[in-house]
Amino acid sequence: MALVSGLALGASACAGPSGNARLDSVEASGDGTLRIGLILDNNGDSAFLNESELAAAKLAIEQINGVGGHKGRPVELLPKDATGDSAEFGRDAGAQARSLLDAGADVVIGPSDSSHAPAAIDVLSRAKVPVMSPANTAAALSGYKSGGYYFRTAAADSAQGSVLAKLAHDGGAKRLAVLHENSDYGSQVSEAVSDAARRLGMEALPAAGFAEGKAGSAVATLKDEAPDAVVVVARRGAQAALAELLNAGISGKKLLLSDGAIRQYGLELGAGGLDGARGVLPGAFPGTDFQNELVGIDPELKDMTFAAETFDAVNLAGIAAAAAEDDAGASITASLTTVSGGVRPPGAPAAERTACSSYRECLDVLKAGKTPDYEGESGPIGFDANGDITSANYMVFSYGPDNTAKMAAKETATRSAVS
Predict the structure, then answer these.
(1) Which DSSP category does 274 fall into?
(2) For residue 270, how far is the Cα from the chain centroid?
(3) Which of 170, 175, 249, 269 is least buried, going by the fewest C-beta atoms within 10 A?
(4) 244-252 contacts: CB < 8 A, separation 24 or more?
């Protein structure tokens, strides 16, 4: 999950367009053909994820076109004839965004890496083309100056805080501590865990931060506080931090792991050290039907990470265009919060909201004179005024004596939409 790493915003964030196009009233200005662009920026060890996102996008387009497309015309996926290893996807996100604009994209899905998002947003927002990422999780992106043209179907890192605190509470903890890596990710998730713990009536002990590979003193400080449970919030420094905790006698059921820390440790940690520990990963495990449909698109597909979030982003783009009766980027942007079940723009018709789980179903809702509330493969969306989802699914994994994790349950983090 390193591709959704923390993000330090540069000066470009201050130069973005002002206002909030998500809540604007706009005039139709499209050409009648909906073109959905795709930015894939996974490389190195994460390159296999391109196949998952591309298959999901193709599946959504196929289903949309199977019921007539947009206004009777097929919806186009750009770049045309793309494959997961296309040379185009090896270019930086800004260059891909410019190519998609040249090809006439009305809305763009991607990028995956949070650190690449500003480059794409800066290019596309100025052209009034919405950007919807299926994988960005950096909390700082909620406030990025996109003029309202940025959305994401993945939850911000901090959303997992309430789930981790709940797991500790459900396990009987009364005194909760957080051991976190010194990074934006570590600090943001740590603060969210502590806030949620207090709301649940637990005592949130002072958090202990550490630099990668130097967790020893932080663990010693934390041990002196005698916590009932410890949440480990880390990425690259997770294994070394866990080793220090095990050496200090803090192990097993006392440990909870953030999404950056969860992995299959096996023999890399002391035998049985994680037995009973739990961790979380964002998203929902794909259902059998959805898996089969994805494999129908790409028979070689082996990993489906971010497939649900990508599939839902493409469907939302199509539903928003249908609701606006226009394929222009500004119209899609102004319709997305409403059709996702989130914030209604000022002055928007107060038509009854009806849940729908596919493009076909949502079209039927529109034809009945009601407002679609799309709940897709990744669950409810509910975009707020920042373009963030307000309901996030998490898979809960439990570790066995061999220090490997298996999915054991699921949890949902919800919050009120920012208006």
Answers:
(1) T
(2) 33
(3) 249
(4) 244/215, 244/216, 244/219, 245/179, 245/215, 245/219, 246/270, 246/273, 247/219, 248/219, 248/220, 248/223, 249/223, 250/219, 250/222, 250/223, 251/275, 251/277, 252/276, 252/277
Q: How confident is the model at residue 84 (pLDDT cuts 50, 70, 90)?
A: confident
Confidence of residue 382 (pLDDT cuts 50, 70, 90): very high
- pLDDT averaged over every residue in the chain: 92
Evaluate if residue 2 carries a pLDDT over 50. Answer: no
Q: How many CB atoms lie within 10 A of CB 349?
A: 8
Could you report the per-residue pLDDT of 292-317, keeping only the tens digit for each?
A: 999 999 999 999 989 999 999 999 99
Name the 3-class secondary structure at 103: coil
pLDDT for res 416: 63
Distances (CA, A) of 228 to 128, 173, 233, 253: 51, 5, 17, 10
Rounded CA gap, 411 and 249, in Å?
29
pLDDT at position 390 over 90:
yes
Question: So what's the pLDDT on residue 16?
Answer: 65
Q: Does residue 12 carry a pLDDT above 80?
A: no
SS3 407: strand
The stretches of 35-183 forming alpha helices (DSSP H) are: 49-66, 93-102, 117-126, 160-170
Strand (E) positions, 306-360? 353-356
Supply 180's token pair: 């976190």
Residue that the structure tokens 């009777």 belong to: 72
| CA–CA dist 300, 132 (Å, integer) | 26
C-alpha torsion angle, residues 188, 192, 194, 195 (rounded to 10):
130
Determine the 3-state secondary structure of 284 from DSSP: coil
Among the listed residues 117, 104, 209, 182, the one whose alpha carbon sits nearest the alpha carbon of residue 156? 117
Angle between the 307-324 and 288-297 helix axes, to the nearest 10 degrees? 90
Task: Return the closest-CA partner of residue 294 out of 309, 282, 283, 304.
Answer: 304
CA dist list (Å): 254 to 168, 212, 275, 279: 8, 22, 10, 11
In the three-class reduction of DSSP (H, G, I as helix; E, B as strand; rest coil), residue 21 is classed as helix
Task: Give the whole-angstrom CA distance, residue 223 versus residue 242.
Answer: 13
